[in-house]
Amino acid sequence: MTIYEQRYRALKKQGYQAWVGEGYPRASRQLAVTLQSLQDNGILPTPGAACLELGCGNGAMASQWLAHKGYRVYGVDISPTAICWAQEAFAAQSLAGTFQHGDVCTLSMFGNQMFDLVFDGSCLHCLLGEQRQRYLNQVRRILKPGGIFIVSSMCGEPKLAAKQQNYDRAHYQLWQDGRPWRTLMPLPLLLQEIASHQFAVFNTQVNHNPWWDHATLCCTAAV
Questions:
Q1: Which residues cross the membrane (predicted)?
Q2: pTM tops 0.90, yes or no
């Protein structure tokens, strides 16, 4: 059982609304402001477009916002509990969405050039080393020509002393429970990594938090 499956089982049992637990209202509001700004500025595709959230969890973040706005929503997550939870939550709200349990580094359930929008639901920073290369290659494969890839990722170095002690600066990895837990690299290196996989970043927003910064990067497939 993955650590993600363990956590989603515990969160659901304890009555929380999403992965971030008690922080859900703040995180949900912040994401809604970001997505609304992107829509207002013409960055998001027209409602009705096919949108995939990678690392969708229980669907309570970007998937839910997009569904309410009229997009055709798909989601993938490594946790079976999260996927069942998303399906239940969407049904309870009479929202349409297709959620599948799977590995974001393979995405074998999807054909080439299927999506107008691929949204990284704070997923990329959960991947380590070679996983990140496979993930970005898959996004490139499933994104339609002219489609938008939005990365929502931790960046910079941890700001809290307790986290700094567990930060491997040589590999840009934050450790937890004796093992690498998150990739947390400086923004310029994150931009360079994305560009190396043939994406062009055309819009960058950074939220400066007390714990670490969080970037929202809007990309298109480079020609």
A1: none
A2: yes
